[in-house]
Specification:
The chain is of the alpha/beta class and 282 residues long. The protein folds into two domains: 64 residues; 191 residues, Rossmann fold. 42% of the residues lie in helices and 20% in strands. The strands form two sheets. A seven-stranded mixed β-sheet has the order 5-4-3-6-7-9-8, with helices on both faces. β4, α8 and β5 form a beta-alpha-beta unit. α2 runs antiparallel to α4. The N and C termini lie far apart (68 Å).
Length: 282
């Protein structure tokens, strides 16, 4: 039987040969999930030998990861803005860049507000906002029943279910079955163009839901629908916050200008690429 250190060493080498990025980190995170421990604890247990059931589960994890299945789908969760989120192949895996959108909303608002989140997916944006903005009321919209089921579970696990109303609706069809006069609209819609989608890495193409990634067009389709929704459901002087692709900043600036927004601002991500756009409705 192999010790924890031997398992990590062999798995790291295997992941390196199969082209998995950050092979040691992946091995450690998968083994931590199997052993139900923190990475720090793992280092204190190097000479321990996992039992047969744990080793079998770890081997299954390793086989799945070697086939490019995302680590988050294997463990069933990820961390986002200090909260734990359940993820599965019906929802997009949260990216760190989306935390910048949450951070900016919290920076701009400290009093209770009404928020409309569109294309909510696993519910990461409304849940993170509800956890950090006391007294806010949020309506979260998605077209997918399965995504909404995951989002509701996540709201319950994070004890914010009373602050969020989850609604099934197609944002391409107005009116929506919701109230109006929101203070804020947030959205992280499918923004990858179909031409860029075809060049994504294997783990994304084979496992993450296509409809959560691309609009099957130029990547801008959903922004036009969102701005049309804001015309009706966002109050005057209300603010909109949207995540977008790195090549879309100029076109989105023009689009918000066409819709009459003021104080338009682009926020860069951690790699200094334009990623979030915000503007104020006149």
């Amino acid at each position: 039987m192999l010790t924890i250190l031997e398992l990590l060493t062999k798995t790291t080498d295997y992941f390196s040969k199969t082209g998995i990025e950050s092979p040691r980190l992946n091995a450690e995170l998968l083994l931590c999930d199997v052993l139900r421990c923190r990475r720090l604890d793992l280092y204190l247990k190097f000479e321990e030998v996992p039992d047969t059931q744990q080793i079998d589960k770890f081997r299954d994890y390793v086989k799945r990861r070697a086939k490019s299945e995302p680590l988050q789908y294997i463990t069933g969760y990820c961390d986002f803005y200090g909260i734990r989120i359940e993820v599965n192949p019906t929802v997009l895996i949260p990216r760190p860049e989306t935390e910048l959108l949450v951070e900016r909303v919290l920076q701009d608002h400290s009093t209770p507000i009404r928020i409309l989140d569109l294309c909510t997916g696993a519910g990461i944006i409304p849940i993170a906002l509800a956890k950090n903005l006391e007294g806010c009321k949020i309506t979260a919209v998605d077209i997918s029943d399965k995504a909404l089921e995951t989002a509701r579970k996540n709201s319950i696990k994070n004890e914010v279910e009373d602050a969020i109303d989850f609604v099934k609706a197609d944002i391409k069809i107005i009116p929506l079955p919701i109230e109006s006069n929101f203070d804020v609209i947030t959205a992280n819609p499918p923004y990858i163009s179909i031409s860029d989608y075809e060049n994504l890495e294997t783990g994304i193409l084979n496992f993450e839901p296509k409809k959560a990634l691309t609009d099957n067009a130029d990547g801008l389709t959903f922004y036009k629908h969102i701005l049309n929704i804001a015309e009706i459901y966002l109050r005057s002087n209300g603010k909109i916050y949207m995540e977008f692709g790195t090549k879309q900043s100029d076109r989105l600036m023009n689009l918000l200008t066409e819709f009459g927004y003021q104080n338009i601002e682009i926020i860069n991500d951690y790699g200094k690429n334009p990623r979030i756009i915000t503007g104020e409705k006149k």
